[in-house]
Predict the structure of HDOD domain-containing protein.
Amino acid sequence: MSTSLHVRERLLDKIRSDKNLPTLGVTISKVIQITSSGEDSVSELAHFILSDVALTQKILHVSNTIAYRTAGGVSVTTISRAIFLLGFDTIKANAMATLLVDGFKDYKQAQSVRKELVQALCASVTAREIARRNRHPKSEEAAVAALFKNMGRILVAAFDHPLYEKIQSIGFDDPGQINEACIQLLGCSFERFGQSVLHDWKIPESIIFALQPLHGEVKKTAQDTEWIKQVASFSEELASTLVQNDESQIPIEQRCSQIVKRYGRALDINSNQLEEIFNNVDKEARQLAITLEVPLANLTTESTSTISQESDFCSEFMLPAFDTQQMQTVSRHPSGKPCNARDLLLAGVQDVTQMLASKQIKLNDLVLLVLETLYGAMGFRFATVCLRDLQLGKYTARISVGEKYIERQGAFQFSVDNEDSIFHVAMHNNVDLMIAETLNPKIQAMLPNWYKSLLPDTRSFIILPLIIDNKPLGLFYADRSLPAIEGVPPDETALIKTLKSQLMSAIMRR
């Protein structure tokens, strides 16, 4: 075996033996599988993000940067609202970029890895902008392919930094020379090396195919796979220019002119459109670049400089909003309920109000937002909305969040017939129930057998009936595995009832 092949195999073995990377690969594959088609895509993405506390906090932090918060007017405290405000694609790209950053952030050679990660995010944003302008059906794949285009470079920088630096020093930032140096020292190109690992991660073949390099003139194509490859290649080259250290003071548009010339006709891009792309890349990627301490080229022209000044002005004089990071890290009662539940509920009411004002609202998204607000603000373990199914003659859980939500949602159902269970009593009397301790003999006597079997360790819960014109539609249910001796004060109760009323109003408008 030649020296370079030995180096490649040794490095691949090292990567495959890393305990964190297989999990990272599975997690990223899961995000890729969540597509924007179908009614459940938003809830599926929200569920995925909510299952990771660190990812949830970082997505909320991005959502509350000045560039996004001014669009909504108030701070964002729920993932459902973040998806609604920023858009499905933006949240998805940021989630994948965040997962990559977390996966590689602990290495000593962090600066090189961080630089490559910022380049990956810039490329993904660029690809999404191009796809949005073309309204291409494969826009999702293009954005993901662009994000992974320099995965080989990220992996080598993370697992063999001396080799990465040696290849870079031989190449002197020239793509052709870097590729030759990589083949000489690693036995293959960075792209090929990245493809090997992405195969292990079970990334879709259409994405892996798009990582192959393009040669010669780039012509317009009708083939989806070739178009994705073109977008990914253009986006990576553009992003590479944005993160390069350049002391020549040459304007960024001029530095990218040859890239536009090569890809312009194939992807329908001109200099004016490039400026718009820069603005969106700057808005989305600069915050991550600042966080990772990676210098990003000055993308602002005279006009965008004015926008930047306006943002600074808004940031200084805007009405103060909730500090989402502080809200997520406050102390909790022994039950798990946040001590600032009132503030979290109030922020949720604001989120619902903003969503209700939109013409694009979907009822399922609104239900998820209310459910997520109750779940997070009150520190519940499991929360679900249970709706009446006339054909089955049952109330069945439809949307859920929290611990084992899929398993519990499937079994959370009960007959519509009058029974003496606590659920029927709540709906028959249209009264919101807040049970602080389920071991109370009166409560135990009213808990049905199916409930005791499904949730045997529940110690506190709430039931919020959904009744319109004396007709029961269903209910909200949420629980904890610990008693809630702190109770629910009147101001929190009022906000919970407001959330329910907002949802009922939306249902009646349909």
